[in-house]
Every structure is written in structure tokens, then in C-alpha cells.
Amino acid sequence: MRLFRFLRRKSDLTEEIESHLNMAIADRVARGQSLEDARKSAIHEFGNVPLVADATRDQWGWLRMELLIHDLRYALRQLRKEPGFTVTVVITLALGIGVNTAIFTLVQGILLRSLPVNDPSRLYRIGDKNDCCYYNNFQNDNGDFDLFSYDLYLHLKQAAPEFEQLAAVQAGGNGFSVRQGAAPARPMRSEYVSGNYFSTLGVGPYAGRLFNENDDSPGAAPTLVLSYQTWQADFAADPAVVGSTVFVQMHPFVVAGIAPPGFFGDRVISNPPDFWMPLASEPVLEGANSALKGVDELWLYPLGRVRPGVNIAALQTKLSVILRQWLATRPTYSDHGGAAVIPRQHVILAPAGGGIQKLQQQTGAGLRLMMILSTVVLLIACANIANLLMARCTARRADVAVRMALGASRRRVIRQILTESVLLSLIGGAMGLAIAYAGSYMMLTLAFPGAKNMPVQAVPSPVVLAFTFLVSLLTGVVFGTAPAWLSSHAQPADALRGINRSTGDRSSLPQRALIILQVALSMVLLAGALLMTKSLRNLEHQNFGIATANRYVVSFDPKGVGYTVDRLPELYSEIEDRFAALPGMANVSLVRYIPLGGNMWGSCVIPQGHPAPGPNDPCFAVWDRASNHFLDSIGVPIVRGRNFSTLDTATSQQVALVNQTFANHFFPNQDPVGKHFGVDSIQYSGVFEIAGVFADFKMTDPRREPRPLFFRPMSQQFRGYKESDPDAAEKSSMFLNFIILDFTQAPPDAETLTRKTLAAIDPNLSVTHFSPYDVEVAGNFNQDRLLARLTSSFGVLALILASVGLYGVMSYFVVRRTSEIGIRMALGAARSGVIAMMLRGALWQLLIGFVIGIPAALVAGHFMASLLYEVKPYDPLAFLGAILLLAICATVAAFIPARRAASIDPIQALRTD
Amino acid sequence: MSTKSKYQNRIELLQGTLDMLILKTLQWGEQHGYGISQAIRVNSAEVLQVETGSLYPALHRLERQGWVKAEWKKSESNQRAKFYKITKLGKEQLASDYERWGRMVATIEGIMTAK
Asked: Which of A342, A497, A806, A873 is the 20 to 30 A CA-CA neighbour of A517?
């Protein structure tokens, strides 16, 4: 706008002067002069046209603007004149800034994110940990309570009017089969929420209506609310969906409405719910196994909006008291020594404006590490640029000196150089944005490959754009100031006299310091990269204890398409038979949860004859249900006793297979085979007989040692539970969701073959997920792999930048010292001596860089320790590798210019200035 | 050589008087830059010659102060030219400038005629 006015006035002035001249000429012609003479004398009388124009423009106060335009134009011309320099600086900066912006985009999207709800600052969650998904015991040794039962939630809600509204959400999520009309069932994610969920968050409907308390009352007609993204993607944005009936696990649900666009629920996760259902509909789907009806069943996170001005600390204390009172009335928690633990139970009120901090706690450490490392990369990039700028400024000393000799002020010269570096950094920043977008997109895809409708976008937000602009500007100013200052102190007389030769002068000191800094920082990055890579190798190539090659994992959902427990044995045996008949099939098995698949179920184990365990006794064991060939299909050997067999039937003795850790933990120094145990209640402690022991393998967390684990056969349902809860859980455990196909040689069309085979058994049964077991296991390490790859690329980047920097500075020294070297050689110095002299300087910088860098890398390793798997933060191999890599690269980078120095022809060198 | 002797015949304009002369010239009617310089020359009997290097900066300065207004118009010789017109503010300025000028002339006169 201002610029526009400026340009208009400028052309205005040109026209005014022109009209003045025209009138002067016309007057003279009228007085009888020839046109030629008239023009000459008119122009002569007018004087210096540009000078008059300048003096006039000076009156507008526009001079600054014009100077800036001049500076910019001059800077652009300078940059175009040296494309090699410009491209190097722009690429270096773009990488440095791009990497930072990409990481910051993720930090902002994940860590600094607020929920898209009304006034998120007043949202608080009761509980601050991420225990999931169903518990009926104390969660943390320090008494931090974070999972709640429905009954306990209602208690808190009623006792705490400090909350304007208090909602409850399911801690975990559900995968359900959803069917609309005649279309085949689709797998979808859902979450149970209380009726006041949307009103607590302050979210209104996009279409239809959201839940109210009526939807969440016992016996209410089941309703659900679709997410906007799911409505768009899976329901073709059809407005008629609102009010229509869809079938969830074969149960009819009315679509009450659609949540607003951008609303992704109460937490940032890679797979946000496709739809929400009221808590009251949970018994509809879960039947007798309902968690809602279990007074002691902990499965909810309370999430509320506090009234303005509420004292959070006081509320926290009050809620903790209510919690302890409730616990004391529940035998599940107070019996068997539980009463002693109740006094330390408490809740922590956590700000929930950013949602339930699950992903944040999972990725926080990694993201913060990346932030630090990317900043280091930027620092190295900046050091490089400062070096390049400085070298260039010295090379342009003569130019600057001429300008100062002609009367340019020091301020003007500094401003000119600063304009240039800021311009460069802004160009670099703009290119960095492109790199940032590609980078964050890549990171999101690699870290969350299965993400659907993930609420974190790779597109930089305005905040990120501002961040990038600021970083670019700062880089330009900070790293342009030093060279500008240095060159403005050039003595015009010296420079004009041709003092462009030197032997190591004062101005080379900052350059050497920058090289040392680069070496030190590169050392940190390289050591970090090697540590992370080694950790990833250890993770991925550890012995999991299972064989995954040539195995495929097929998931399906018999419950979702209406199978009841009594029809299961028939289905399972048909699946086993049909798949076993496929060519090249070695083993087929069925299992409820696959090892390293991310899901599991656990119970408290009570060996026969032992007292009921207290709250502090470690009785927890993971358990799973599988077909007879399961252990064979994943290559796990039986080390004692026997495997399941066809003799284990629905009516024979209940049996179980246990792992070695289980045997050692519950039956130390005994032969476990033939021993009995039960789960959860002492009256059933004789139910299961141990038939055999199998070798340990990693079932859940690949980072941890195996934990007690037992398997039960798919043929045996224990019908002896007298209470309805365990009986319902037992029934529900009869549903197996995975088929494992173990081929001797995998056919190329394994997936189509599988889909066809399953459809032939029952066309309603569809394969909800199919993947090689290797891929399934590798999925455990997505984030570790990403972290390792990122640190490695940062390390390589640092190595390249540092080498280029060293090379540049060395080359520059060689040019500056050409005449010195010429004299030395003329006086008889050998070429090898010259090379040694040049290298010595470089190696000193390298050495000092190491002296600073190695302790810094040790400190960095210490902070990374929690991310490392079976690698010491001071792993000597990683450090040695980093030192070697850096030393080799630096030597090569220094050797090339040194050899060039040695090839100087003394006569030539002395002749040139 | 001849140009130099011509210059010596002219009186250097005192600082600040150019603005006053321009405003005075514009009081007779709107005029363009060339016209103003011609008018001052004619009215001073060719003694005062306004340099364009002073005239145009002065005109733009007066315009910025709001003492004159500029407008593009056709001149009498049918030439497009930028015409300047004195504003109310300009007239007040002229009056105060002229008063100051009078005082200064009187003061200098006093000094010159002192015995």
C-alpha cells in the first residue's frame, strides 16, 4: 500500500519535470529559437535532472524505503553473481530451518494442542496417568488413582458441585463391525461416553443432535453420534444418515447426529473414534459381560468443566477423600489387606484442555529429543553460513573499501551486508517450509502407519509459519551481524593498497572457533545417531522367542456378525480344516490375542493351596486362549509336560499351558506340571491343571522381559463360575479373533486366497485385517524406527555440513595464504611440508572440537537413556564410531585444499597479488 | 566563462525566503512549477533566478505541509502540467512569513544605518 503510493508519486514527479522542460522549450521556440537550441538551453537551465528529482523525493521522507529497495536490488544482484555460494547457503538454511519447522509442526500438533472445544482451559480430568482399559485393583504403587467405575463416577459427580458438568469417557476404545443397509459390515472405532459428554465439552452438532441425559439412561433406545470425517468418508456425506438405523455388532442403533468438523474427541490419537455411543448402550453390546454394571469395574476417565474460580488443589483433596470413602465400602478393594493401601489412594486433577494426555506421554520424550537435535542441526547450519558469509566478506573487502572511500557510511555498509544475509535467510526459510511440509508428512506416516482421520496435520499452522519466519529472520540477523561488523572495519587505505594477502590473521579466529563448534555439535549428533541406531537394531533383532517368517496374521470378528458361543466350536473346526487344506500350509491356528499384537488380557493368578494375594502381591499374569496347534504355528517349543491335544475337550479336566516365567514365579523350585491354579477368586484356585510348560517369548512389551503367561485351549469353557461377572468374561473369552497361517512356502496370492476361504465358510465373515506376521511385529517399533532414522539423518546432515564448512574455510585460507606459501616454497619448503602445515591447523580444530564434543555427547546420551534399549548411554562402540567418522570426513575435507596449496607454483604465487 | 559572470549578477536567496516567494506568487492564482519560476524571475526584473533544484523540493515540501495543493491540469499552451494552489493554511503561513520578513528587514536596516 505504502509502496504503491510511493511508486505512483515517483512517476508523478517524472511527469512534472518533463512538463516543466516541455514548457521551457515551447517558450524558447516561441521566442524564435530553433527547436534544437531551445531543448539544449532548457535542459541546461534546468540542471541535473536526477539530482533535482532526488532532492525533491527527499522531501517525502521516502528515502529509507528507496534505500531498502536499492539494498535489496543490490543484494539480489550480488547473490545472482555467485550462484554457488547462494545455492549452498540457501540449501543449508532450508535444511536447517525445514527440519526444525517439521519437528515443531508435530510438537505443536501433538504437545501444544488444545481440544477444538469451547473454553478448553476450564476442562480438568480426574486422574493423570494412562492406565487402561479395564481394572479391578489399585493401579499405581504410589496410590495415584486414575481409572474409575461407573458407580464411583456417579459418586464423584454427585459430591462435587465444583464441576459445572462432569462427564465420563471410556479409557480404551472398541473396534466394532458396523453395517448399514445391505452393505457388508465395516470395522470401525468407537468410544462410550456419558450423556453429558458433548455439553461438558461445549460442542454443538453439525447435523441432527448430540447426546443428552435421556440417551444415557438405562433402557434408552440405543443411539450413536458419528464423527464428521467418518460421515464424509464412510457414509458418503449422506444427510439421510441422520435418523436412520445402523447395526453395530448386529444391534440396531439410531444415528442421532453428526459431530462438528474438526472435532476428534477427547484426546489426540492416531485413530480417533468413528462414532460415540452413550454409556447406557454398553450393556446392550456387552450383555452379561458389561463393565457398566460392574460396580468395581474400573474403565472410565472422568472429564469435567470446573466452575470459574474453583480452587483446584482443594477440589483434588476433596475428591481424594470421596475416593477413599468409596473404596472402604467395597470389599474388592478393602479385603485381603487392601484396607492398608486405601489411605494412600488419591486422585490428581490434570488440566485437560489438551485432551487426555495419552499420545503426548507416549511421544513426548521422543519429540523433545527431536526438538533438541533439530536445534543442534540448525546451529551447525548457522555456523556454516556464518563462516561462508565471513569468508565472502573478507573476499569482498576491496569492494567495501572502495565504497567507503567513495563516502559510504559504516552504517550504510553494515545495512547492505545485513540486508543480504536476511534476504538469504528468508529465501532459505521459504524453501525450508516446503521441506518442513514433506518432512512432517513423512514423519506422521512413518510413526502412525495405521492412522485414520488422525487429527494431526502436516500442514504448518500460522503459529508454525510465524515460528519459521522468526527463526529465519533471527538466523539472518545474528549470523549476518558478525561478518558485517568485521568487514565494515576494513581500512579503506589498506584494502586499496592490496593487502589481500596474509599469513593467518586476526579475522580467521572466529572462523576457527565456528569450525570447532561444528565439530563438537556434530560429535553429539553422530554419537546420538549411532546410539539410537544400535538401540533399534537391538530391539528389532532381539530374540522374541517366536517365529514369524512365512506366517500371516488374519483378523476376523465372529461376534460382530452374530455368532454365539455355542456355534463357535463348529466354526473354529471348519476354519482349521479349510485352511489346513490350502497348498503349502504347515500349521493353522486360532488365537484370541496374538503375541506382540498390542492387545492382551490379564488376571490375578492364585495357585491352589495359597492364601488370597494382598494388594501388594504380584499375582498378575497375562492369559490367552488358543487352538491346539497355536504354539507349533509360532514355533514355540514345549519344555516340560505336553501340548494341548484333542483329548482336551469341553468336558475333560480344565488344562492350561504356562510359560517358564509363570512356572518360576508361582511354583518356584517345583515341578509345575500337574499343579492347579485359578484366577481372581480363591474359591476357584483348583480349577486349571498345568499340562505343560512352554519356552518364554515376548507376548506384550518387546522392551520388557517376559511376564507370567498362560494359555487355555479354545475347546474348554469353564462353566463353574457362580457369579455372573466372571461367567460373562469367560464366555466372552471364547471368541477368538485371529487366525495364524504358517506356510512352508507362502503363496503369492495369500491374501485373496484367505479372503476366499473365509467367505466360503460364511459369506458374512470378512477378513478385517491381513498382514505378514513380520510386519505386525515391526509395527511395535514404528516410533523407535522413526526416531533412529531421524537422528541418523540429522547425524549425516551434521557430518556433511561440518565437512563442507571445514573444506570451505580451508580453501579460503589457502587462497588467502597463496603468497605466503609461494614464498615458503621459493625458500625451499617441500610440498609435503606445506600439506602438513595446512593439515596441522585443521587437525587442531578437530581435536579441540572433540575435547568439547565428547563430554557434550555423554551428557546427551544420559538424557537419551530412557529411549535406548540394551545400549549404555556411553556405549564405547557408538562413540568410537562417531569419532572415526568425523575424523575421516574432516581429514578428507582438509586434505583436498591442503593438496591444492602444495600444488601452488611459487613463481605464479609471487606474481599475483 | 560567460555563464559564471551571469551568476555573479544574481542575489543569493536568503534561507527560508523561497517558500514565501512561492506562496506569494500563488496568491495571484494557481500556477505550475515552470510558471512560478518564470513569475519570480519577471517580477524581480530578472534578478532572482530560482534554481529547479530548490524550486521542486520547496514545492513538494509546501505540499507536504498542506500549504499548497497540487492538481494535474491543462496549461494555457494546452500542455498537461501540475498546478499548485495556495490553501487557507498557506495564506496564514504567508502572512506570518511576511511579517517575520518585515521585522528582519527592519532589524537589518537598523544595523546598517546605525551611526
From this structure: A873
Interface subset of B 14-33, CB within 8 angstroms of A: 32-33
**HEC sequence for A446-465:** HHCCCCCCCCCCCCCCHHHH
Q: Which residues of B52-64 are buried (b: 16+ CB within 10 A; e: fewer)?
A: bbbbbbbbbbbbe
| Shortest CA gap A60–chain B (Å) | 7
Residue B80 has its nearest CB partner, among A19, A48, A59, at A19
Q: Among partner residues B34, B35, B57, which is closest to A56 by beta-carbon distance?
A: B57
* Interatomic CA distance for residues A644 and A700, integer angstroms: 22
A638-641 vs A551-555, strand pairing mode: unpaired
Q: What is the radius of gyration, based on Cα positions, of chain B?
A: 16
Calculate ∠ Cα A149-A152-A156, nearest 5°: 135
Say if residues A95 and A380 touch (Cβ distance below 8 Å).
no
Please name the member of A12, A15, A23 whose beta carbon is closest to the beta carbon of B34.
A23
Q: Does A331 touch chain B (CB under 8 A)?
A: no
**Total CB pairs under 8 A between chain A and B:** 61
* Beta carbons within 10 angstroms of residue B79's beta carbon: 15
Closest CA to B83 of A19, A406, A563, A350: A19
d(CA A416, CA A76): 11
Flag whether pLDDT at A850 surpasses 50: yes
Chain B residues within an 8 Å CB radius of A22: 79
Bridge partner residues of A246 (DSSP): A253
A chain contacts of residue B57, beta-carbon cutoff 8 Å: 52, 55-56, 58-59
Distances from the Cα of A366 to the Cα of A109, A350, A358, A439, angstroms: 14, 22, 14, 16
Q: Which of B35, B51, B79 faces A22 most closely, judged by CB atoms?
A: B79
Q: In A811-828, which positions are buried (b, 16+ CB within 10 angstroms) versus exposed (e)?
A: bbbbbbbbbbbbbbbeee
The closest alpha carbon to A2, from A56, A42, A55, A61, belongs to A61
Other CB atoms within 10 Å distance of the CB of residue B8? 6
Amino acid at A77: R
Exposed/middle/buried for A417, CB within 10 Å: 0-12, 13-18, 19+?
buried
Task: Quote the pTM value.
Answer: 0.71
pLDDT at A156: 93
DSSP secondary structure string for all residues of A166-179: EEEEESS-EEEEEE
Among residues A191, A797, A229, A201, the alpha carbon closest in space to that of A457 is found at: A229
ipTM for the complex? Answer: 0.84
Grid-cell match 473354529, residue found: A572
Neighboring chain B residues of A53 at a CB cutoff of 8 Å:
56
For A147-167, write each residue's pLDDT tens digit.
999 999 999 999 999 999 999
Query: How far is C-alpha A348 from the geometric centre of its chain's CA atoms?
Result: 27
Distances (CA, A) of A145 to A135, A142, A192, A276, A303: 11, 9, 20, 25, 14
DSSP state string for A34-59: -HHHHHHHHHHHH--HHHHHHHHHHT
Amino acid type, A864: M
Q: Distance between CA A849 and CA A204 in Å, rounded?
A: 59
Q: Higher model confidence: residue A336 or residue A371?
A: A371
**Residue count (chain B):** 115
